[in-house]
Amino acid sequence: MSSKRIFVLNGHPAAQSLTGSLAESYANAARKAGHQVRLIQLHDLQFDMDYGFGGYERQKPLEPELEQLLTDLEWAEHVVVATPMWWGGLPAKLKGLFDRALLPGRTFDTRNTTPLGLPAPLLTGKTGRILLLSDTPGWVFRLFYRDALAVQLRRQILEFVGIKPAKVSTFSGTSHPKDGLVARWQSRVAKMGALGL
């Protein structure tokens, strides 16, 4: 197995979280297996979450943390995003991170389009993995919510900028997991990390 450059984003805004522990399990196993790994913790980043002007012509200057995030995305061959689902969506700070950092000219090109008429992605040649945690049972997430957040993350965010395929691994019942379940989840993501998947 060849070594990969892997970027892991822990998208939970708290300093201690189950989401963070899974992101770290993935990163630690990947390092141990010989991959090059960069890990960013959302809670460590200081930036204005508000896109503000609402147009591409008058963008706010990016804070150093957001510049580093973009550098890590460009460097990576494989991108891992770990996030909880809150109210059916992303935590506000993680959504703000995507709003502020994933901009035209760096992550997609509005002057060139795909055959479908979408802006051309600029972060191509990379694969992705989403670790999605929620309290919602998996069957409810699929049947009633149609995997809405998974689709947003996979297709409307990662694949939109060129990171594909982006595979989704879900973990449900996270507020009150049964005995031994967290250890099994950590082992599951460690296996992914070791293989760079």
Q: Could you characterize what this model shows?
A:
Helices cover 35% and strands 24% of the residues. With 197 residues, the protein is an alpha/beta fold. The chain has one domain (5-195): 3-Layer(aba) Sandwich (Rossmann fold). The strands form 2 sheets. A 5-stranded parallel β-sheet has the order 2-1-3-6-7, with helices on both faces. Helix 1 (18-32) links the parallel strand 1 and strand 2 (36-41). The chain starts with a strand and ends with a helix. The model has no long low-confidence stretch (mean pLDDT 91). Keywords: Oxidoreductase. GO terms for molecular function: NAD(P)H dehydrogenase (quinone) activity. Belongs to the NAD(P)H dehydrogenase (quinone) family. It comes from Shimia marina.
Radius of gyration: 17 Å
Strand order of the largest sheet: 2-1-3-6-7
Shape by Cα distribution:
globular
**Biggest β-sheet description:** 5 strands, parallel
Q: Count the domains.
A: 1
Architecture (CATH level 2) name:
3-Layer(aba) Sandwich
Terminal Cα span:
12 Å
Helix content: 25-40%
CATH class: Alpha Beta
CATH topology: Rossmann fold
Summarize the structure.
The protein is of the alpha/beta class. 35% of the residues lie in helices and 24% in strands.
What secondary-structure arrangement, pairings included, does this model have?
Elements: E1 5-10, H1 18-32, E2 36-41, H2 64-75, E3 78-84, H3 92-101, E4 108-113, E5 119-121, E6 126-134, H4 138-143, H5 148-158, E7 163-172, H6 181-195
Parallel strand pairs: 1-2, 1-3, 3-6, 6-7
Antiparallel strand pairs: 4-5
Helix pairs in contact: 1-6
